[in-house]
């Protein structure tokens, strides 16, 4: 397999970026995933469930976008990229009104061989911290990078 993902960049972190969690964005996300739970729309319903206010669905951080693509993915051929596995760990729920400082870390690369051909799995972690600097969430995601087609 031709190595295309620069492993020398493993451990690098993106510049921090700010995400402001807005009520409308949370509602639209909940609508898009088809989740009618009122804790994603109504503060009284959320408080009745023990939350400090409206919370975001657990997969909401997939909607956060880094304003600048990380250096380890800039050169990749987007036609060969697939979304892979992802997981979330929470220190606490994301709340409407949170102002989160996020950054992406390049964690590693794994090589795999599938029936469709060789691939590299690029592993990244996105961390979000609140205004006080306390951790809120960690989103671990895997990007599948398929081998170039034979010419």
TrEMBL record:
Domain FAS1-like dehydratase: residue ranges: 8-137
One Pfam short name: FAS1_DH_region
Membrane-spanning segments: none
Name this protein carries in UniProt: Acyl dehydratase
Species of the source: Xanthobacter flavus
